[in-house]
Design a protein that fits this description.
alpha+beta; binds (3R)-3-hydroxy-3-methyl-5-(phosphonooxy)pentanoic acid; Ribosomal Protein S5, domain 2; about 35% helix; four-stranded antiparallel beta sheet
């Protein structure tokens, strides 16, 4: 075994994953599609700790609590099973996204951890198997293993992985309206949705339909159709989530105001479309040359950041890039630093 460091970026889904077919294997009820970003990275180092009795997780320079550590340990058990080894490890992870606020920090987190841990345990995984492994940590993490636009296939343990597809170039404007950790985790909210919403089966079947249309729109470089599906599918997901018993609402009045402002921008000739994950922050897709102008308009609602398609999860080999123990520079530089930890 050896110490290894990997970096991964969050992804924002344009066709959302919401609901599991298998909770243990983290198999989705339907396929999904997302854009892996080029900002808000997680950098994770896995250090062998042969004499330790338990895994240790250090997040943004502080030792993590038991709940977070046990989630990582359960994931590392998969890695250990694949490697046929029992070694415990120290995991040092630095996030530059607000954790648990609907900006997919679990995706970058588990994609980076899967990549670093697979290398630390000398597993020789191809991109497909690495994506399958990341999926076991957090479903959406399997998409952050792949660069740019990526489809996550529904299926069984062997066939449920993410892979990149070609798509027209675009930018995403991330409007951060609230950096607080969300009150209900995606995992819990998905469970409640499947158990209590009368609309759940319609959601699953219509998601597969939209995914087919979205893949075709990406292949045709049809930005308008990509945008229409993106916004419609996001609103369907939030409608579905609000239909749970008891109801859950992730969007707040500012989120809705951003959806309205983007619709107005469309009227005035800037073609853009909104989406939001399990939190109040909004992501807006737009053609590259119109991104800065629209970001200026949306800055009235919160912090804005224009991001683009980013790389898949990868090992860091450059010694200069690998953060040293106790070095919290990456988090301190982030506009959204200090928001706790991935969960
Ligand atoms: O992978 P999880 O458990 O964090 O779930 C992600 C769910 C959404 O972000 C709301 C949708 C998606 O496809 O990323």
């Amino acid at each position: 075994m050896r110490a290894t460091t990997a970096r991964a970026y969050p992804n924002i889904a344009l066709v959302k994953y919401w609901g599991k077919a298998d909770e243990d294997l983290i198999l989705p009820a339907a396929g999904s599609l997302s854009l892996t970003l080029d900002h808000f990275e997680t950098t994770t180092t896995v250090v062998p700790a042969p004499d330790a009795e338990a895994d240790v997780l250090e997040l943004d320079g502080a030792v993590a609590d038991g709940g977070q550590t046990s989630r990582i340990s359960v994931f590392l058990d998969h890695v250990r099973a694949l490697a046929g080894r029992e070694d415990r490890v120290l995991v040092r992870s630095r996030n530059s996204v607000p954790t648990g606020a609907g900006l997919a920090s679990s995706a970058s987190g588990f994609a980076a951890l899967a990549t670093a841990a697979a290398a630390a345990f000398d597993l020789d995984l191809d991109a497909r198997d690495l994506s399958r492994l990341a999926r076991r940590g957090s479903g959406s993490a399997c998409r952050s293993v792949a660069e740019g636009m990526a489809v996550w296939h529904a299926g069984d343990d062997a066939s449920s992985f993410a892979e990149s597809i070609t798509a027209p170039d675009m930018r995403m404007i991330i409007v951060t309206v609230n950096r607080a950790r969300k009150a209900v985790s995606s995992r819990e909210a998905m469970r409640l949705t499947a158990a209590t919403s009368p609309f759940y089966s319609g959601w699953v079947s219509s998601t597969e339909d939209y995914l087919t249309q979205m893949v075709a729109a990406c292949a045709a470089e049809d930005f308008t159709r990509i945008g229409e599906i993106t916004e419609s599918h996001a609103l369907r997901m939030h409608g579905l989530i609000q239909s749970t018993v008891p109801p859950i609402r992730f969007l707040n009045p500012t989120s809705h105001a951003i959806f309205d402002a983007v619709a107005e921008a469309r009227e005035s000739g800037i073609e853009a479309y909104s989406t939001a994950d399990a939190g109040p922050n909004v992501a807006v897709i737009v053609r590259p040359h119109e991104a800065e102008a629209l970001a200026g308009q949306l800055s009235a609602f919160g912090d804005v950041r224009v991001v683009g398609p980013g790389p898949g999860a990868h090992l860091l080999t450059d010694a200069d890039e690998v953060p040293a123990a106790g070095d919290n520079a990456a988090a301190a530089d982030s506009p959204v630093a200090g928001e706790g930890s991935r969960a």
